[in-house]
């Protein structure tokens, strides 16, 4: 819809939200009305230019500081909002049949491991997280027993430089191992999200998230480019 096709009220609200630093008189001039009418419309719409300006300034500060708000991140939303959410114990498995040449060792004696953990709501698993990474050969189940999150594995590798890259999301029709872990039937769809974990720009792990597609929504910010 073109600007001239909007009502004066719609034009006023549009100008205020898209450029909160405009003066009341500027909005009135653009809409060809009086400042008094502009104030009336903004008041009826519960719009405060001061609050919009403060919000805009905070967002700019976050961007300049390299911080992202939650609205700028993809989020997982449970369809069942109420329930007791828990995590399972972390399991550890040494593997050799995984080929990812991007991964790098931080020590030549490290071996490749897969670490997994499930998230449950009311005792029913809805996601399985696994991280494939190189770890010291003295790692064992006892050493990871008290970890709350898989990310704590990287605390001794400089967690302050923790980044992600190349996130790929796809739907899998059936995966026997994952379906069993999530308590799903053969026809139940699974959402898989895979990404690289980087510390100080060095890829040190591959993270896979598997979700019960009937239990969650993936919410992505911004535009979708197809």
TrEMBL record:
What does the UniProt keyword field contain? Coiled coil
Coiled-coil portions = 42-77
Give the domain of life.
Answer: Bacteria
Q: Does the keyword Coiled coil apply?
A: yes
The molecule here is called GntR family transcriptional regulator
């Amino acid at each position: 819809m073109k600007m001239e096709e909007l009502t004066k009220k719609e034009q006023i609200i549009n100008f205020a939200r898209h450029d909160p630093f405009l003066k009341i008189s500027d909005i009135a001039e653009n809409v060809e009305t009086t400042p008094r009418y502009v104030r009336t419309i903004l008041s009826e719409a519960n719009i405060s230019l001061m609050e919009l300006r403060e919000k805009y300034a905070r967002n700019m500060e976050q961007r300049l500081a390299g911080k992202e708000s939650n609205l700028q991140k993809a989020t997982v939303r449970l369809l069942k909002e109420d329930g007791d959410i828990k995590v399972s114990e972390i399991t550890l498995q040494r593997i050799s049949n995984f080929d990812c040449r991007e991964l790098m060792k931080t020590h030549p004696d490290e071996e490749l491991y897969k670490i997994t953990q499930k998230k449950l709501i009311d005792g029913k698993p809805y996601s399985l997280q696994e991280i494939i990474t190189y770890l010291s050969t003295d790692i064992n189940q006892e050493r990871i027993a008290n970890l709350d999150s898989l990310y704590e594995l990287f605390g001794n590798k400089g967690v302050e430089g923790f980044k992600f890259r190349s996130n790929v999301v796809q739907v899998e029709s059936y995966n026997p191992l994952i379906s069993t872990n999530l308590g799903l039937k053969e026809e139940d769809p699974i959402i898989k999200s895979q990404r690289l974990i980087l510390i100080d720009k060095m890829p040190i792990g591959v993270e896979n998230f598997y979700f019960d597609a009937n239990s969650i929504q993936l919410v992505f910010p911004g535009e979708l480019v197809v």
